[in-house]
Amino acid sequence: MKKLIILVAFLAIFSSCSKDEAEAIVTTDFYGKWTLVAMTGSFQNSETTGAAMEWQEFYLFNTNGTFTKSRERNGVKTTLSGTYTTTTQSDGIYFELTYPNDSEIIGSCYGNQKEVLYLTANNSLSSTWSYCDGPGLEYKK
Fold it and tell me: Where is the signal peptide (predicted)?
């Protein structure tokens, strides 16, 4: 009987996790390097991966609210840094990236030195650029 009480107490302690704790785990998991793994066009079955993609790129998210984006295309490497904020919406976590100046590597529908990315259910990071006929970009840690 004593073993049963200890087992129940153990399970109660380690299975109880408040909603805030669960969200903190999810929202801090995005820090680090996210590498472009797939690119899709507006046509069905137009996905490219690996070296077949038009460019290679990654984001590096820092814990202090800053990020770096680096893209290599046709042997030319372009790197930009900026700041980001996260928001939790009903359909997931969104990242708004703000750049200090304009650049061709900013994938945005608005042309305002901002990008929006979101975490997907399969633990990838996706760009909203595809919402306005840009390529669909998927990143993995």
Answer: 1-19
